[in-house]
Structure formats: structure tokens, C-alpha cells
């Protein structure tokens, strides 16, 4: 992906195409975000499994095309995806079984799981090609991704042994370097407005750390502290529909 972005930038700066008027557009796109690869895996034995479910995305895009074909583009990209509760609970229970073995004399147990969420500020090169009355766009992006990790937690109390066992997400806030390849096909519905269909491939990598804690319930003293980190490759296919406004 890095090589593709650098190639596009090289084409833009080295191109000798004749300018035929510039164009500036702003677009809004909504659609479905579909996890793929390890990000969609539900295997409790795969450390990279993201256990993500289908979600939604929103793309706010600004593109400046100073020449006939080549331009520069920027995007605010947001995604919200569910988490497979059953698979995630099974993995947490497996971790708890290692931390607290054997799982006997349990007084109370609770599991909490929530969403994958992230927002990205992205920039990159773009290529615009006419297709009949429509326009085909190819864009490549990189930038910064702010990720709000799904909070995952399981706790068990064992009063007979005066122990409270707790596994939880260490830090929900992470920054990553994402890559995105976007294609779209748009058709005019008025002189300054086009409707478009968009398909993206999005990729980033996140470290998700879970703390493993044991407390003495009588003294409230922490008697054990460790952590386990999962390197999760975020990968999604995004398919949506939007409007393009020529400014």
C-alpha cells in the first residue's frame, strides 16, 4: 500500500498532462463496514482474532483536482462495528480458567463487551477518469487513526478463598497508521451534484492489551498483576452510497 501511494504521488508530480480546468469536490458517503481476515475471526485460539461483526462507516471526503486526471484528496473516516459477544466471552472465560484454576467455588461472575470504534484523518493522491456520462475515481490514503477499543471485562469472586479475579481491557484509546484504497463510480443528477457508489479496502493494526488481576477480598490488596497483548489486524471492506458536490 505504501508503494502504491508513493507511485500515485510520483505520477501527480511528474505528469505532463495538459490542465483543462480544475475541480474541487466534497462528498458524503454512508454504508456497510464488513470485517475480513483475522479481524472477522471468531476463533478463541487465534490471538489475532478481532471477533468483529458487520458495522457502519461514514466518509467525509474533499478532493482537489488541479489537472484533468490527477488530484489530491483528504478524508475524515469513521467506523463503528459490533463485537461477537459469544466468541469474545469464550476467550475471556478461557483466559480466566488459566488465571483461576480450577474454576470452582464461584460466587459471582460477570462479563462486559462493547463495540469497535475508530476515526481517521487521511490524505493521499487521486485519479479521476470519465466513464460515459459518469466518473470513476481511484484514491489511496494514509494518515492517523484514533481507535476506541472494545472494552472487554470478566470478573469472578470466590469468597471461600477470599479472592477477586479480574480481567479487563488495559487502555481503550490507541493511535494507529492506517491504509485505505477507495474506488467509486458517480453519475450526475444535477449540474453540481453526483450520486456515487463507493467500495473501499481499509487496513490498520492495533495492540489490544488485557490486564489480569487478583485481589484479596479481605484486605483489598492486589496479590497478582500481569497482562496479555493481542496484535489485531483491522481489515474491512466498506461498501456505500453517497453524494458528490462540485464546489
Protein architecture, described:
The protein is mostly beta strands. It has one domain (about 1-245): Porin, CATH 2.40.160.20. Helices cover about 10% and strands about 65% of the residues. It is built from two helices and twelve strands; from the N terminus they run H-E-E-E-H-E-E-E-E-E-E-E-E-E. Strands 1-2-3-5-6-10-11-12 form an eight-stranded antiparallel barrel. Strand 2 (about 50-65) and strand 3 form a beta hairpin. It is elongated. The two termini are about 30 Å apart. The model is unreliable at about 10-20 (pLDDT under 50).
Number of helices: 2
CATH topology name: Porin
Order of strands side by side in the largest beta sheet? 1-2-3-5-6-10-11-12
Secondary-structure content class: mainly beta
Number of strands: 12
Strand content: over 45%
* CATH uppermost class: Mainly Beta
Number of domains: 1
Unreliable spans: 11-20
Distance between the termini: 30 Å
Mean of pLDDT: 85
CATH architecture: Beta Barrel
Series of H and E elements: HEEEHEEEEEEEEE
* Residues in helices, as a percent range: 10-25%
Shape: elongated
Amino acid at each position: 500500500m505504501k508503494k502504491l501511494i508513493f507511485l500515485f504521488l510520483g505520477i501527480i508530480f511528474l505528469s505532463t498532462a495538459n490542465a483543462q480546468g480544475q475541480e474541487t469536490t466534497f462528498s458524503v458517503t454512508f454504508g456497510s463496514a464488513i470485517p475480513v481476515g483475522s479481524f472477522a475471526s471468531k476463533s478463541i485460539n487465534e490471538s489475532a482474532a478481532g471477533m468483529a461483526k458487520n458495522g457502519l462507516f461514514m466518509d467525509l471526503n474533499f478532493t482537489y483536482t488541479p489537472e484533468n486526471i490527477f488530484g489530491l484528496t483528504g478524508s475524515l473516516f469513521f467506523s463503528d462495528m459490533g463485537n461477537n459477544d459469544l466468541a469474545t466471552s469464550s476467550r475471556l472465560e478461557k483466559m480466566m480458567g488459566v488465571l483461576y484454576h480450577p474454576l470452582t467455588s464461584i460466587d459471582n461472575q460477570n462479563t462486559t463487551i462493547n463495540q469497535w470504534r475508530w476515526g481517521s484523518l487521511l490524505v493521499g493522491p487521486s485519479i479521476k477518469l470519465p466513464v460515459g456520462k459518469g466518473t470513476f475515481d481511484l484514491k489511496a490514503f494514509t494518515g492517523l487513526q484514533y481507535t476506541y477499543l472494545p472494552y472487554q471485562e470478566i470478573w469472578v469472586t470466590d469468597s471461600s478463598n477470599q479472592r477477586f479475579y479480574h480481567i479487563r481491557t488495559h487502555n481503550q484509546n490507541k493511535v494507529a497508521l492506517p491504509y485505505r484504497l477507495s474506488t467509486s463510480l458517480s453519475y450526475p443528477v444535477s449540474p453540481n451534484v453526483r450520486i456515487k457508489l463507493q467500495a473501499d479496502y481499509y487496513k490498520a493494526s492495533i495492540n489490544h492489551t488485557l490486564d489480569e488481576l487478583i485481589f484479596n477480598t479481605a484486605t483489598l490488596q492486589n496479590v497478582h498483576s500481569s497482562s496479555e497483548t493481542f496484535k489485531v489486524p483491522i481489515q474491512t471492506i466498506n461498501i456505500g452510497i453517497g453524494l458528490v458536490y462540485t464546489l
